[in-house]
Amino acid sequence: MKWITRERPKIDRIACPWLIKRFIDEKAEILYVPFDQVLKQSKKLDAIPFDIPDVEFTHYGKECTFDYFIRKYKIKDKAVLAIAPIVRGADTDHHELAAQSNGLWAISAGLSYNVKDDQELLLQGMVLYDALYSWAKYLQKVKHTEQPFENLLLDVFNKYLREKPGSKKKIPGWAQELKEIIQDHIDTNLSLREISKNLSINPSYLSREFSKYFDDLSFGEYIRKHRIEKATELMQSSSYSLTEIAYLTGFSDQSHFTRIFKKHTGKNPSSYRKTVLKK
Fold it and tell me: Which residues of 168-203 are buried (b: 16+ CB within 10 A; e: fewer)?
């Protein structure tokens, strides 16, 4: 079976051929030609046109061509379905649809810029989507903790975030997952809106219920508390400057870090550190 589309692919015109070859027809031949030649060449070569206007395999509403292939061929693979919103977001410039869409667009655009031959670009794109598929199938829940301060982050998690043994309060699944998210991203900016989307929970409900499972603190208070606790852990060593500690704990600048630190500990960071290092 032959498939034909316009030249210089980036998202849909790489993702769709990957889907065709991996789930529809592994021997499929993918052809790239100038836009104004797609329909003419499709008839001449008996190839099915895709990802151009006014053909069957194209965009419908807010969905991209990748979505239509999934629906047309009734593909139920869970990893493929997880990839679909990532591809859609990257292809339609709606990066809010999936956290990975922005990265997929960046890598795809760079790949297209670097590789001028479309068939070679397809080969490299196949490797990219095989990797994305493996992530979706096996690695979605795997956390990246290879930073130099990995052990310190894990210490904070074990001391403050993990459910204490003997606790009788039943913690819902979303709260457990949220603890892991906070632990993994305590050095970055988090928002309830973004987290509620990842947890598939209404943000108003999450805001209302949060304090019940997080030390009677609001979301903002809880994040600041653990950032300060992480900062005090980092101060046990002289390896980092206060500016670096402010950065590693997710504060916008050192003055903001100093103000919040003093509010929580009663001392400014430099005084606190001198006391700690003297012990």
Answer: eeeeeebbeebbeebbebbbeebebeebbeebebee
For 150-278, CATH number? 1.10.10.60
Please give the Cα distance from 224 to 5 (Å, whole number).
51
Cα–Cα dist 261/245, whole Å: 11
Give the number of residues written for the chain.
Answer: 279
**How far is 32 from 158, CA to CA, in rounded Å?**
53
Q: What is the pLDDT of residues 180-217, one digit of tens each?
A: 555 544 444 566 677 777 777 787 877 788 788 888 88
Q: What is the pTM of this model?
A: 0.56
Residue 207 CB contacts under 8 Å (≥ 6 apart), including other chains = 192, 218, 219
Q: In the sheet that 29-33 helps form, which strands lie side by side, from edge to edge?
A: 29-33, 2-6, 48-49
Quickly list H helices, the chain: 12-19, 38-45, 65-72, 78-91, 101-114, 118-134, 150-156, 173-184, 192-199, 203-213, 219-234, 242-248, 254-265, 269-278
Give tens-digit pLDDT for 21-37.
999 999 999 999 999 99
119-130: b (≥16 Cβ within 10 Å) or e: eebbeebbebbe
Q: Where in the chain is the domain with CATH 1.10.10.60?
A: 150-278
